[in-house]
Each structure stands twice: as structure tokens, then as C-alpha cells.
Amino acid sequence: MSRSLKKGPYIDEKLMKKVSNLKAGDKTVIKTWARNSVISPEMVGFTFGVHNGKQHIEVFVTEDMVGHKLGEFSPTKKFVKHGGKMQKELEKK
Question: I want to staple 71 with a disulfide (CB 3.0 to 4.6 A). Which of 35, 46, 50, 67 is the partner?
């Protein structure tokens, strides 16, 4: 459920401070554990290392991502394929 309009989107203060210290177009990776932080327009063009519980996954922020949360682009679970014998036969072909 989203936050109320009165409160506004949640953006981690430490994360915004790190973004404001860097110049536009800087290629350094900003490591963060704030998966619930909303992507703001100031973050566009930077690369974030979003923690998924085990490691930091690099996410390059584009204009399409504004309004989404950082955690949406760093999956926490590894997908293991469905199937069995039928799936193995299809992969051989």
C-alpha cells in the first residue's frame, strides 16, 4: 500500500545525501540497503548497488523507473525452472 499524499514518497535521507555529493554522469556505484526508498528524478543516471539479502545488485536508474522502489529491480529469490522430464527434453532440442 502506498503512502498518503500528505506524507509524500519515502526517500532515504542518507541515500539522497550520497546522490547530491556526486556529479551527474559519475560511474561510481552507490551501495544501499534502502530497498523501500522511492526513485526520485534526481537519481536518474546513477548506478545503485541494491542489496538483495546476499549481495549488491547493480541497478542503473533511467527515467522510466521514477516513482518505483529500488527493491523492485533487485530480486531476492532465485527462480529455478519448472518442469522435469518434459522440460529437459525440450531443452535438448
Answer: 35
